[in-house]
Design brief:
This protein is of the alpha/beta class. It contains five helices and four strands. A four-stranded parallel β-sheet has the order 2-1-3-4. The relative contact order is 0.18.
């Protein structure tokens, strides 16, 4: 009889505007960990940069998250945290929002990947 081992699954984290979070939460990514902390942050007009920074750092430190999606216009406000993150997991991916199109020239992760392949 063969022994099958299952890989541990990871959650997806999200830092985004209301429309982006609504779409992903309707898709089923919302979870709470044992400490009742959500794996997402809805960034509203009154959300401070400090709140975004502390929540992104909290998501980056969680061992149960494998990918963190962040709206690119929000990522621009916490670029120093994104550029300091070098671990493969969780992967940080910048995504567009309904109001702000994706700009590849601002994506530090894409720049890093291009540098690896000398593109």
């Amino acid at each position: 009889m063969s022994k099958v081992t299952m890989a541990k699954s990871h959650l997806m984290g999200l830092v985004g505007d209301e429309d982006t979070c609504t779409a992903f939460l309707l898709g089923g990514i919302g979870e709470l960990n044992d400490k009742r902390e959500p794996n997402f942050l809805v960034v509203k007009k009154d959300t401070t940069i400090g709140d975004i920074e502390s929540n992104l750092k909290r998501l980056l430190a969680r061992k149960d998250i494998g990918i963190i999606l962040i709206n690119q216009h929000i990522a621009n406000d916490v670029r120093h945290i994104i550029e300091a993150h070098t671990a493969a997991i969780p992967a940080l991916l910048e995504i567009p929002s309904k109001e702000h199109p994706y700009d590849a020239s601002k994506d530090s992760i894409l720049k890093r990947a291009k540098g690896m392949f000398n593109i």
